[in-house]
Amino acid sequence: MHRDPPTPILRPEEELSRLGASERIRYRLVGANCRYHANDNIAEFIREGEMEELKAEVAAKMQEVLRALVIDTDSDHNTNETAKRVAKMFLTEVFRGRYVPMPSVTEFPNVSRLNELMIVGPITVRSACSHHLCPIMGKVWIGILPNEHSNLIGLSKYARICEWIMTRPQIQEEAVMMLANELQERVKPDGLAIVMEADHFCMHWRGVKDDESMMTNSVMRGAFLKDANLRREFLSLLSKKT
Ligand SMILES: [Zn+2]
């Protein structure tokens, strides 16, 4: 039977190198069947140097947005560099948690077998809504009931994990769930409680222009679900801390 010699298959990365950075990253994500919603972290699909490429790409598209808004960025010195500034702000500040890996966290075995309710907070939250990309500013409190097998992490690490989750466009309900999942997996406590209270700027700046736009969400897991006293203790300590 006659067979044609196999056609040389280009290595995917060679093929990809001809595309823009965002296309390349998207191609890898789709290939790995990995979700890439606004609140997903995609760090493991980004190669060295590609963040710089992304920054240039977003700046160029942002320049087009300004152009579509009929703003003369050439003669208006205030908006001259705006596209670049916004691209940098999105990628390295306000949406940073999508593009960088989880901050490294050292876990300590619970040698002293702590089993008392521990509360961390208020942790300042700076996030953005995925509907309008408007700021969400707020606070988070975390309640942990460790058991002897729990891993303990340093206090400042709670804030770093929280920041990593929050610096993504998202909705508050999903943000607290994501934070709970991350902490559950690392700390493995008997009980985990999270309360987030935040101000949604898309309610001030646009829409109903409502000044009462605080939203409070909570997640209760394990012992906090089963034990009403524990839940009450957490909530009462928390109200004293505001
Ligand atoms: Zn919004």
Helix content range: 25-40%
* Category by helix and strand content: alpha+beta
Oligomerization state of this entry?
single chain
Question: In this structure, how is the largest beta sheet organized?
Answer: 5 strands, mixed
Q: Alpha-carbon distance between the termini? A: 80 Å
Name of the CATH homologous superfamily of the largest domain: GTP cyclohydrolase I, C-terminal domain/NADPH-dependent 7-cyano-7-deazaguanine reductase, N-terminal domain
Q: Please tally the helical runs, counting DSSP H or I stretches of 4 or more residues.
A: 8
Can you give the mean pLDDT? Answer: 91
Number of beta strands: 7
Radius of gyration: 23 Å
Molecules bound to protein:
zinc ion
CATH class of the largest domain: Alpha Beta
CATH topology value of the largest domain: GTP Cyclohydrolase I, domain 2
CATH architectural group of the largest domain: 2-Layer Sandwich
Structural domains: how many? 2
Strand residues, percent: 15-25%
Low-confidence stretches: none
- Apparent shape: globular
Strand order of the largest sheet: 5-2-3-6-7
